[in-house]
Structure formats: structure tokens, C-alpha cells
Amino acid sequence: MLPIILDMDPGIDDAAAIAVAVNHPKLDVKLITTVAGNVTVDKTTKNTLKLLDFFDKDIPVAMGAKAPLKKKFVDASAIHGSSGMPGYDFPEPQRKPLSLSAVEAMHQVICESKEKITLIATGSYTNIAQLMEKYPKDLDQVNNLILMGGSISGGNCSSVAEFNVFTDPDAAKIVFDFPIEKTMIGLDVTLKALITPQTLDKIKKMGKSGDMLYSIILAYGDVHVGGKPMHDVNTILYALNPELITTKKLNIEVATKGPAIGATVADIQNRWHKAGTYNANVGIDINAELFNEWFIDQVSKMP
Ligand code: BDR
Ligand code: CA
């Protein structure tokens, strides 16, 4: 089993990623930490607890940053609804978060683990940046950092910036600059892997989990020609089957001010960095049909 920590802002696509991860026989989710992003951190934490109640999984949850490091917090409730998880009537959560903060809980789990951890971040990277600043040695125990976010081909928040990086560009800069093996699964991948209406029709008939996922995805405001992007789910696919996403080793710089704030600029021509160096494996392609088949297969195995 692959030991993982999820750092997220559920969020409809984060919720779908949680659904896949906590039910997958090859993944051992050690901890879920939450961050402000799609909605406030109180709501992203509540949504995480609701999902763990739904799937009856005793996975510790720790609440993280209420706001970005420097920038003013602006949510994405226009896309994810005011609760962050609309479309399905979840009861109030029975589970409670830990009293530890996200950073302290990650530190504890990483220190206690005998195996190296895969750290997956699908919200803004505020908690991860704080972990790197406070406990840099912990990152020696992380063998891969998988980030949903960024883009080298245009943004979804501005013409150049993707939401997770745009929300906290200062944290993103710390994370991309940190010397650790990392993979950026950004819009270059996730906007290719749209969940089609046919896939939604299939999962709708797949028991209580399929019905729940169908209902929340239906309420998701991120709509493109051909379907809806389940951005964060791609990170779970990559953790399990990295060969299904084509990556390129590139140097990524994060813009932290000015009109390009939140952009992840790739030094494709090696103008600023030596050829052969890189700070990220950048996802550039995925087979959308395979992604849909894989997602349907995951949902079909859920309770
Ligand atoms: C990212 O932004 C959020 O709204 C989604 O949950 C995803 O993590 C896509 O840009
Ligand atoms: Ca997210």
C-alpha cells in the first residue's frame, strides 16, 4: 500500500479525489489536511468530515491555513457553491478534526511513518509551504510531492494563472523552489481529461457512491465543451499510474506580483536555467478516454 497524505480544499473535484483515494485498495490515506481555497477552511474541513462519514473511514483530519501567506483570500464559491459541496444532502458530520494544526499533524505523521510518504496537494499550497519553512527535514521523508495546479498554457483565473497557484502564489513559489522531487499536474493535463456526460450517466447508476458523485459533479460550475474537469482526481491517478500522464522535466518559476501573478512560467528554452536542470515534472498530456474508463472503474468498486 502506498502511504499518502492529502492536503485539500473540498471542493467538488477534491471530494471526488477523496472518494477515489479512501476507497482504493492500494492507497493508505494517513491524514487529510485542509486549507482555505474553494471555500473557507471551516467549510473545506466540514466537507472532508462529511465524506469520511459517508464512506465510514476513520482517517484523521487536521485543519490548516485560513488564508494565503500574503494575498487576500478569495474563494471559488461561484464554481463550487457556497458550501463547497452542493448537490447532495449530506448530514452534519459526526467525526471531528484533530486539535493539531495541519502542519503539526503532517509533521507527526511524517515523523512516525516507517516508509516514505507521497504528499498530494489539491488546494492552494499554504500548508505545504509552512511545513517546508518550519520542518524542512520532514521533506526528506516525502518521496514525491504531487501538486494539482499551475499551467504552462493559460490559466483559469486570469489569462495565465490557475486557481490553486493564484490563490497563494507566495506559497507556490516556496513549494516550487524547494529542492524536492515534485510533479505539477496542472490545467495542461486536467482540461484534457474532461468527465463526459456519458461517464456521468454511467456512474449515476452505480449505487450510493455513484449517485452521490453524480449529484455533486452535476452541481459543479466548471463546465467546458465536452464535459467537466475533475482536476484533483488526476493527482490520484498519477500516484497510482504515473505512466498514464506524460510529463516533461522543466524549471517552473511562480510570478508573485504584477499582471501575471499566479502564473507558473516554464523555462522551456533554458534561457534562465542550465539545460538538463529542472525543479518539476510537469504533466503535459493524458488520454481522456482512458481517464474516463479509469474513473468509472473506480466508482464501480466503491460501496
Ligand atoms: C483547481 O481549483 C479548484 O477550484 C479545484 O478544486 C482544483 O483544485 C483547478 O484550478
Ligand atoms: Ca482543489
TrEMBL record:
Q: What UniProt keywords apply to this chain's record, in alphabetical order?
A: Glycosidase, Hydrolase
Show where the Inosine/uridine-preferring nucleoside hydrolase domain sits. 4-292
Q: Name one Pfam family in it.
A: IU_nuc_hydro
SUPFAM superfamilies, per the entry: Nucleoside hydrolase
Instruction: Name the CDD domains for this protein.
Output: nuc_hydro_IU_UC_XIUA (cd02651)
One Gene Ontology term of the biological-process aspect is: purine nucleoside catabolic process
Keyword set includes Cytoplasm: no
According to the UniProt record, one GO cellular component term is: cytosol
Please list the GO terms describing molecular function: purine nucleosidase activity
The EC number(s) this enzyme carries: 3.2.2.-
Q: Which PANTHER family match?
A: INOSINE-URIDINE PREFERRING NUCLEOSIDE HYDROLASE (PTHR12304), NON-SPECIFIC RIBONUCLEOSIDE HYDROLASE RIHC (PTHR12304:SF15)
Name listed for the protein in its UniProt record: Ribonucleoside hydrolase RihC
